[in-house]
Amino acid sequence: MQPSDPSGGTEGADVCLVLEGTYPYVKGGVSTWVHDLIGGLPEFRFALVHVGPERGTYTRKHYSPPANVVTFSDLYCREPLARGSDVAALERAARAEGRRHADARRSSRVLHGIRRLHLEDQVDSSLLDDLASGDLSVGAFLHGRASFELTTELCERLAPEASFLDFFWHFRSMHLPLVRLLAAEPPAAAVYHALCTGYAGLLAAVWGHRAGRPFLLTEHGIYARERNVELDRAAWLHGTRDGRRSNGTIDSATASALRTMWVRFFRALARCAYARASSVVSLCEVNRRRQIADGAPADRTHIVPNGVDVEGFHARVRGMPLRAAEGLPVRVGFVGRLVPIKDIVTLIRACFLALRVVELDVRIFGPIDEDPAYARRCRRLVAKLGLERAIRFEKARPIERIYPEIDILVLTSFSEGQPLVILEANAAGIPVVASDVGACRELLEGRIDADRRIGPSGIVTALAAPEETAAAIARLARDSELRRLMGAAGQRRVATFYRKSTTVSTYRALYTAGPWPVSAGASSG
Amino acid sequence: MAGIGWRLERLIHQGIAGATAAYATGAAVMALPWMLTTAVLVSLPVAIGRGMADLATAGTIVNVAYAVALLVAGPVQIVISRYAADRLYEGRIRAIGAPFCRGVGATFLICAVPAAIAVLALGLPLRSALWGAALAAAVGAQWTALSVGNGLCSPALVLGAVGAGSALSFILAALLAGVAGLGVSGYLLGLISGQIFTLVILLVGILRALPADADERARLLPAFRDYAALAGAGLAFNASLWVDKLVAWCLVGGETAALHAGASTIAWFSTIPCLAWIFVEVETAFYRRFREFYSALEGGAPLAELRRGARGLVDETARLLRGAVSVQAGVTAFLQLAADPWARWLGLPPEAILPYRLLLVGAGAQALGLLGLILLYYFDLRREACLAAVGLLLGVTAFTLAASESGLLPSVGTALGCSLGAILTWHRVFRGVDAVLQRTLLGQPFGAERRGNRVAEREQPG
Fold it and tell me: Do B450 and A144 touch (CB under 8 A)?
């Protein structure tokens, strides 16, 4: 595919980016990546499709899409309740829909596809054909007899001991987004590109399949596994221990069965996207291996790491006064959102332990609005440990006002893809202590031989290990030469292997590569 | 209505006297309106005197008042009783009082006005219209109170209110008309006084059963929209009880129509045992099975258990049908055998016996059709209930009309129409109960505040 002439007509875009819960509504690494990618490829026309939970969830765009975004559309998994509609009105509407569909025996290809998603591991062209047929209306799905028969069949086979009522509602919640999204008209595009698996990934795969166009999949994290983590933590899926039910709770057998069903479902969505994708891109080797384990064909997987605009970064950071370190305690910084997945609690405990052996000044930079309860919990912990003077919470700042002020970056996340903060810290010559998740080890110790020869640019610690993290922080704090060496290695590594220009040019090549290999899910139709 | 079942069961377990009271309550709740109509019409000549000139006027006023009350208040009663039953089920008992009082008030108006207009339209003077309006309002409001009271009050109170009011009606009517010499006016005044006495007892009983801090904001009007199909079903079924007489009067007229009306009225008494049995069985054994099924569904039962529960409901429905058929068949067979002496005893002419025999079959079928409608209400198959009742109405109308037009007795058509209507109603009942799980769940809106879907909808991952 060749990029279109920017002055040409508007018949379709070059790339249709299908996004879920991210750009331009949510700030963060993926959104910044998307914005930079689009901005870095001005010769391509982009159509953006954002998949959100329901209208009204996202109201504010945090990014202004660049000029080469030719269309932007929102799709929603659910329709919100109409203003003023009460239960009685909904019930009337449901009864009317029920009358229309309750006796319709005819099944649909979409329902057949849903059945296969749950009962079969194989993804082939006919499955995508079924899902792409779009022959199931929301009304027929919610109120149709064929849909109910599928619900009962799946309940018998997947969760025979579970509460049928809960299974029924979860079945609806799980598949209604699918039915709604599959009924949407895709923007015309030469390439469909999804940034995750899940609903958006399947949608882009089906659109690509329907249009006979290539489908590119990039995963920053591993969507299906991230959902696993969410399901593990979800209070609404925790069964009561004694098997009894009360308002809003479910018994443990039902909780277990439903959790398994959700996990299988997200894996099935991922398998569909992997099977249809011409290229499956991840940010690091760890994630690539996970993709392969989850069903991605190894020969179609690629690693395209994120990059930093090294020159621009240096221009911004060098312009600011660096800390005069002599005589001051070593400053440890955390940069990121204060959310549970970042495990700030472990960071605080590690600093508490490290403070016993070395003087530190800890700054936690980041927005607290995403999970204020967690931020309060972190503040309470700091107070409880008597660390108010040593650990301070700071608002999010521009990077040029962060990196010149810290000596060591610490990242104790439970889960990461390829964290941009490590690249930025290394680009600024700051050593990093990071938990062994995602691409952190590759970023700090090197991915390929040439990279490893540069030497470590930080210390990797075990997950949720405050003692080990404290030891690493203390080691770096005590040894200024080690900090200097690791910082220099980091700068070399970023400059050599993690340039944004390389990332952008790789995607330019991916978008323009042709002919695209025929994937398992490709069809002539 | 939900609530009376355990009281009935307790009565039944108290022995023969208790069981009698339970079935008498059933008879009162199910058959009171037309039993009273008949009793009043029969008692008129006795109370007023056969030779009095205004006997016909009194008969017209009573007929019109009861017909209007039955037709117009019927849908209101269904809506109010269903509203009250749903609030009881939801545990929102405070939301019953205010709408109930408004509903009774509305019944006064909507019965009085059409009754007055109807009496005037028949060429009677304004004074008669006012009596007709007062009687229709009293009777309509009383039946409305009865439809709610049978679920909220004890059977003893319901029976006591109905019994005391009826007795008072007849005693006062006889005293005022016969002894005091007030004629029709005295008769109607006595009759209305007794009916109002029943109404007052029922209202006191209902309001005592409800909490004092009623939710004044609760509204009844939306219930008429929600239960419009049920109201339609009530209207159609009540109309089906009258339409054959109207058709016969319009098409054949004269003595044949009068014979048909008389035979029909007497034949309907044959359904009282069956209706009493239906009331008790539906409110006890069937309701227990019904609650078990829905409790299991809401309590998190697995699919296999729910399927067993659904099969149990089908079995219970079939048992109800078999039982009702047995009771009705027994009564009908006895009355068929005793038709000749019974007709002679009632003073019916010999040519009324064949219509009477035919209408015994028709009345039995209509009672079975009523049972089917009640079950359709229970399973919230509102549209099905409405269609079934309209089918019954159309069947009775069409077959009575066809029989009358073709020179046959109207009762031939009425019996056929009632039977066909009952068969079609039961077809709908079994179709609905067979798919009870599917229909219950597929009728649920996505987005309503229900336990289970609330968490699933709002907190789904992704």
Answer: no
pTM: 0.78
User: Which chain B positions have a beta carbon within 8 Å of A168's beta carbon?
Assistant: 441, 452
Query: Cα separation of A453 and A447, whole Å?
Result: 10
Residues 243-262 of chain A with CB under 8 A from chain B are: 245, 247-248, 250-251, 254, 262
φ, ψ of residue A19 in degrees (nearest 5): -115, 150
Closest CA to A381 of A402, A412, A352, A406: A352
Do A287 and A219 contact (CB within 8 A), yes or no? Answer: yes
Cβ separation A94–B443 shorter than 8 A:
yes
Provide the token pair at B279: 């009331």
Q: Give the whole-angstrom CA distance, residue A147 versus residue A106.
A: 10
Let me know how many helices (H) and strands (E) chain B has, helices first. 19, 0
Instruction: Pick from B225, B381, B446 the residue to mutate for testing the A interface (most A CBs within 10 Å).
Output: B446
ipTM value of the model? 0.76
- For residue A250, list chain B residues with Cβ-Cβ distance below 8 A: 300, 452
A408-411: strand order across its sheet: A391-394, A360-365, A330-335, A408-411, A432-435, A458-461
Interface test with A, best of B307, B442, B450, B459 (most A CBs within 10 A): B442
d(CA A158, CA A150): 12
Q: With 0-12 CB in 10 A as exposed, 13-18 as middle and 19+ as buried, what is A299?
A: exposed
Q: Mind listing the pLDDT tens digit for each residue in B364-386?
A: 999 999 999 999 988 888 889 99
A458-461 vs A432-435, strand pairing mode: parallel
Structure tokens at A465: 């290990």
How far apart are the CA of A12 and the nearest CA of chain B, in angstroms? 29
Query: Using one digit for the tens of pLDDT, what is the confidence trace for B440-461?
Result: 888 777 764 333 343 344 344 4
